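Supplementary Methods S3. Complex input for the zinc ion-bound model.
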Amino acid sequence: MKKYFIITIDTEGDNLWNVKNTDAKIRGITNKNAEYIVRFQELCEKYNFIPTYLTNYEMSNAQPFIEMATYGNKYGCLEIGMHMHAWNSPPYYPLKFANGGNNSYLGEYPKKIIRDKLCFLYDHLCKVFQAEITSHRGGRWYLNDYIIKCLEELGIFVDCSITPKVTWRDNVGYTKYSNGRSWSIYKDKVCKLKYKNIFYGKCNIIEVPMTIRKNSKNEKIWMRPNGKNLKDLLWLIDDNYKSDCNYMEFMLHSSELMPGGSPTFKNTRDIERLYDNLENLFKSISEKYIGISLSDFARKYIK
Ligand SMILES: [Zn+2]
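Predicted complex, serialized as C-alpha cells:
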C-alpha cells in the first residue's frame, strides 16, 4: 500500500540566514527567488506531487510567484498556506532588542499584535492568491497557545510547525529571555494540537509534524535535501515506509531553489546538484508514496 508524500516549502525572502534584527535590514529583504520556484513546481508535477507553499509576507508581494501560485492553486497542482515571519509582517511593532538577539518569535509581541499580524497575513494571502488558506507553519518552528487559538479562529485546520525530537530552546529571539519551543517529546505522527497551559478545552487543528527519524548512529535525519545527503534521504524513504507513520513530509525553503539564495546552495553548480538529487529522490519516492497537499491530507485524517 502506498503512503502519502507531503511537500512543504517555506516560501520566504532571499538569504534569511543572515539575522534581520534592525529596521534597515528588514527593509532590505528581497524576494528574487520567486523567479526560480517554477522549475521546482514543474518537477513536482512530473511526479504528480502537490507542494504546499507556506508563504510569508514578502513573498505574497512577489509577482512571478503570485502568477504561478494563483494559477496552480486554481487547478489543484499546489496549495498556498501561511508562514509567519513576525519580524517582517504588518502591523509593525517595535520590540526592545537584547544584545546577541536574533529574529523575533511571534510569541514575543503583545497579544493584540499577534492577532493583528495573523489576521492581516491571512486576509492578504486569501486576497492575493484568490485562495482558501487552511494550513500554517510558524516562523522559526514556533507556536504558542494564543497563536493556536487565533489560527483556529481564522479557519486554519492544519499545522506543520512541529519538528519531532528537536528543541529550539537554545535559539534566542529578539528580546531578553526569549527562546524557541522544544518539540523533543513529539513523535512524527499526526495528532491534534493541544493547548499547553493557557486555554482549556479541545483544539481542532491537525498537526502533521516534519519527518525526522534517527538512524542507527543516532543522528537525526530530516527529509530535507542539502546537496550532500542523498544517501541519508534514500535511507529515510525506506525507514519511514517501514514505520507505522502513514505519510512522509519533505521541506525546503523557496530561497534554496535560487543560486546564492541560501548558504547551502551558493551557485548554479550547487543548484544543479540539488535538482539531480531531487530527481533521484522523487523517482524513488513515487514508487512507494503518492503526492497530496497538506490540507487534503488533513481532510482525510478528519474523515
Ligand atoms: Zn521561515
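The longest helix spans residues 268-288. The mean pLDDT is 95.
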